[in-house]
Design a protein that fits this description.
single chain; 130 residues; alpha+beta; Hypothetical Protein Mth938, Chain: A; 3-stranded antiparallel β-sheet
């Protein structure tokens, strides 16, 4: 099981300016690897494949579920199914979970964040992006 402890933290939630080449750009910075975006900030996510997405790997988001309405999970280049326990745990907390390719998750995250909606995102890094 991968180390899920965040190695980087930006203390504010920010729109994502670009993604691809194995990372993301936001707030004038570049981040290599996957990313979790919550009302508490932007954190490194030590996940590199959709098969590694578990309830445990989403602990940072689960811990702030009372502050969000929607969780977007970017599953990489393609859509991938989630374990039922993930949706069930967030549904108990009245959080909608959508698993979509990372490109769609980034776009929707930016729109909802711009509308000042209570949104979080867990995004797998991809090589091809924009």
């Amino acid at each position: 099981m991968p180390d899920e402890t965040p190695k980087g933290h930006y203390p504010y939630q920010a729109p994502i300016d670009a993604y691809g080449n194995g990372g993301f750009r936001f707030a004038g910075m570049s981040h290599k690897g996957s990313l979790v975006c919550t009302p508490g900030g932007m954190d490194a996510w030590r996940i590199s494949a959709a098969s590694e997405i578990t309830l445990a790997s989403l602990r940072l988001v689960l811990d702030v579920a009372d502050r969000i309405d929607v969780l977007l999970i970017g599953t990489g280049a393609d859509i991938a199914p989630l374990d039922r326990s993930i949706k069930a745990a967030f549904a108990e907390r009245r959080v909608i979970v959508e698993a979509v390719p990372t490109r769609s998750a980034v776009s929707t995250y930016n729109i909802l964040l711009g509308e000042q909606r209570a949104v979080a995102a867990a995004l797998l890094a991809v090589e091809r992006g924009r």
